[in-house]
Specification:
Order of helices and strands: HEEEEEEEEEEEEEE
CATH architecture: Sandwich
Strand content: over 45%
Organism: Apibacter mensalis
Strand order of the largest sheet: 2-3-6-7-5-4
Number of domains: 1
InterPro entries: LipoPS_assembly_LptC-rel (IPR010664)
Oligomer: single chain
Largest sheet: 6 strands, antiparallel, barrel
Protein name: Lipopolysaccharide-assembly, LptC-related
Radius of gyration: 30 Å
Number of helices: 1
Pfam family, one: LptC
Length: 192
């Protein structure tokens, strides 16, 4: 009988603590806003092919892809870089390689950083350490040093303070640029 009374006392004591703690007016601690800036999905050794009906538009390869879905503006990060081919009908594929990339698809904003190399369908090569692509305006730009090597192997354009360009970098504006242009002294002018 004594044992049952002791157990009842403990039971009532624990019940009292539970009611007292749960009914107090004090907040249990302000947790503030929820932290949503964490990767909701991580994919390893991804190969992603985006298509338009039956034609491939983009083929992307990356060792790690992190998706952040629970933030106000969702984005995707490629912390260990990416290697991407992009296709247009009737043209050779272009290529992008970077050691880091970030995509904010909802606003059409793309960033590539660290050892960025872009090769367009004409086989012209752009090298820089950071570049942005505005998908809606179909323009690329950078404030970093940019080097463009034309497919002819002769023309090299270097800009110390960046570039503004069409996405295929055929029409571009270099800022504070330097470079070499081919000069052929044997050029003959045909005068009739």
């Amino acid at each position: 009988m004594v044992k049952i009374k002791k157990n009842r006392r403990w039971f009532y004591f624990i019940l009292f603590l539970v009611i007292f703690i749960s009914c107090s007016d004090e907040k249990g601690g302000d947790l503030g806003e929820k932290n949503t800036n964490f990767a909701s999905r991580r994919i390893y050794n991804a190969t992603i092919t985006l298509t338009d009906s039956i034609y491939a538009i983009i083929k992307l390869r990356t060792p790690v892809m992190d998706e952040y879905e629970f933030v106000q503006t969702p984005y995707t990060v490629f912390p260990k870089g990416l290697d991407m081919d992009f296709y247009q009908k009737g043209k050779d594929p272009g290529h992008l390689k970077a050691d880091y990339a970030k995509i904010i698809e909802t606003i059409g904003w793309y960033e590539a950083r660290k050892n960025v190399v872009i090769i367009n369908s004409d086989k012209d090569t752009l090298k820089t350490n950071q570049i942005f692509w505005n998908k809606k305006e179909r323009k690329i730009f950078s404030k970093d040093t940019v080097k463009i090597y034309r497919a002819d192997g002769i023309t090299t354009n270097i800009s110390v303070n960046g570039i503004e360009s069409s996405e295929d970098f055929k029409n571009f504006k270099l800022k504070k640029n330097k470079g070499t242009l081919p000069y052929n002294n044997d050029l003959k002018i045909d005068s009739k």
